[in-house]
């Protein structure tokens, strides 16, 4: 009987430097072709925008925050572990002690900091918000207030919410983590 951990966690993969995009593509394609979509969810390359001047013009490029590393959100099972670690370009999991031991996941606090810096929500799929729905704001300047969703940007995991203050509606932008369904 295969040992399966039910909860999904984030893990760090070590890759050949410069192969991060290829590894992401390979893992997504293998997860799909090997029927592992219920175990392997998101693959993220930590990178940030960098602006440099070239010929007097600003040029924006994406710079790897952690070259040679890729983050993967998955449910750790023997099969999902096998699929990911045997993906071309993956040299191993960070936090694995070798000899066939499964790696330790990132702590919730660690991944939330990394994902927030990248502008990605850690609650990507768990919460399905809808325009017109009321939510409680659980973090930020409007914490504790109730507002109505006016717009959803799923790619950026952002919500535009109208909150009533002093008898007037005020619009605010929130990350998915900053709101809970009523």
TrEMBL record:
GO terms for biological process: DNA-templated transcription elongation; DNA-templated transcription termination; regulation of DNA-templated transcription elongation; transcription antitermination. CDD domains: KOW_NusG, NGN_Bact_1. GO terms for cellular component: cytosol. Keywords: Transcription, Transcription antitermination, Transcription regulation, Transcription termination. It comes from the Bacteria. Residues 128-155 form the KOW domain. Residues 7-118 form the NusG-like N-terminal domain. InterPro entries: KOW, NGN, NGN-like_dom, NGN_dom_sf, NusG-like, Rib_uL2_dom2, Transcrpt_antiterm_NusG, Transcrpt_antiterm_NusG_myco. Participates in transcription elongation, termination and antitermination. Belongs to the NusG family. HAMAP family: NusG. PANTHER family: RHO-INTERACTING TRANSCRIPTION TERMINATION FACTOR NUSG, TRANSCRIPTION TERMINATION_ANTITERMINATION PROTEIN NUSG. This is Transcription termination/antitermination protein NusG. It comes from Carnobacterium iners. The gene is nusG.
């Amino acid at each position: 009987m295969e040992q399966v951990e039910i909860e999904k966690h984030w893990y760090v993969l070590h890759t050949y430097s410069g192969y991060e995009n290829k590894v992401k593509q390979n893992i997504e394609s293998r997860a799909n072709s090997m029927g592992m979509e219920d175990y392997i969810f998101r693959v993220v390359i930590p990178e940030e925008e960098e602006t440099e001047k070239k010929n007097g013009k600003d040029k924006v490029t994406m710079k790897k925050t952690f070259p040679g590393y890729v983050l993967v959100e998955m449910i750790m099972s023997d099969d999902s572990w096998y699929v990911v670690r045997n993906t071309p370009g993956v040299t191993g999991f960070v936090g694995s002690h070798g000899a066939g031991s499964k790696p330790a996941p990132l702590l919730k606090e660690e991944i939330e900091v990394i994902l927030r810096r990248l502008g990605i929500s850690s609650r990507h799929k768990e919460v399905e918000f809808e325009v017109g729905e009321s939510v409680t704001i659980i973090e930020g300047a409007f914490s504790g207030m109730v507002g109505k969703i006016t717009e959803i940007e799923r790619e950026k995991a952002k919500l535009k919410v109208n909150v009533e203050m002093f008898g007037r509606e005020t619009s605010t932008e929130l990350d998915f983590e900053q709101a809970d369904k009523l």
